[in-house]
Records
---
Amino acid sequence: MSLVTTHYRTWATRHRRRAGATAVEIAPATTTTVTNPGIYQTVAFPTISWFDGNGQIQSANFAFWSVTGTSASLQGIVATDPQLSINVAGDNLTAVAWYIPVGTGPGTGSGIDIDAFDVNAGEFVLDDFVNVTSDPSLTTAANWDGFVPTTSAQTVEAFASISVGPFIVWDIVMGGLSKSARNLSAPANSGGVAFAFYQKQPPSGGIKVPHDRYRESVWVSHGVMVDGGGPTGGGPVGPWDPLFGELMAGLNLAYSARMVDKELRVGVLEIAAKQVLQSAEKMARNIKTTK
């Protein structure tokens, strides 16, 4: 038997990569027992909303999954598909769905947000990791702040290796950016978010799972089987995907109510209950009308 613990977290540098960047838990973690050998499957909803410590509602969009194991010999996994399906064979795993707060990236100013991610550890790291080859005067600020202004077109080159291992790939999370090998290109006046993934190879004899080839099966929900829509191992199939988002929003509000002032908590819970009921009723109607 193995345990898979799933977390939902936001990444937010706010142009302060080395001076206050935080990872915030935005939904309750879950722990699932998987019989060995077995497959763990889950889905990250496109958008999650929650109340912050000031009682203000916040939202974030899915960026990527990170999966790590308890054994030092296990190689980590990253995947941008919100549908996660991984083989479990004797090791306890931690899966983290990373989200980008709404208000980050395109539309928030002329520039791109960047950061470095250690795939094996499943966390962002503070190493210097880029040269701004198009304008070297921007390199120091790019590594400190994680931000490159784009008043003119820019090219950012990731280091071939940092303390946690060699460069693997750029992951363009959002924005009209392009990549080639270790180079990330941003047009003038563009915005976006991109992460440089780094990964050290495990010791000889370890379990090696390539970061871009972890899926060995594709699962299909019953809703898709009866043409009603729903999640699959290859991505969501309409028309249910918006309804899942509505349901998750209600559940997130209910969870976040505990962080709201007591005088407001009852009202928040009432809204959460209405949201869950309405989305469930819509799903039920879809099921009844499926032919």
---
Amino acid sequence: MDVRNSIWFYSTALDVILVDQLTKALARSYLIPGKPIPVIPGFFDLKLEFNKGAAFGMFPNWAPLFILVGLVAIYAIVRLRRSGTGSHCLSIGLGMLLGGAIGNLVDRVVFSARGVTDFLDFHVRGLPPWPTFNIADAAIVVGAILVVVHVYVIEKRRSETEVES
């Protein structure tokens, strides 16, 4: 395994965890639940919410299962990274997935009474509201996109090039 890609993987994960936990702490310190602060009126607010459930607040009383799922996801991401091809794209994507999973897991374990802290609220008038989310959630989505791009674009091109050779 390439050392540079391992550095990308672990430093990306660590950066996501640090930024996620710092921004959640700031949100808990400065925002009041139920009182959004408009940043871009009609589009983006800072709005403190707590989520004991899964995505979109589903299954709010299943916290022990989500902790177990988070631990399994962390294990799977690290194992997948070890078996990866060594691409920067894959390393960064998996690092974002790992950091996001750990960031939300920290909230579920340390702040189990209130759940995961969410504070980013994007909305467009006339459209259904998007659920409030956090940096860890965003990292998970972006990381998943990078992994999909790696698997379906980069690896596909690589295998087509090998077939042509």
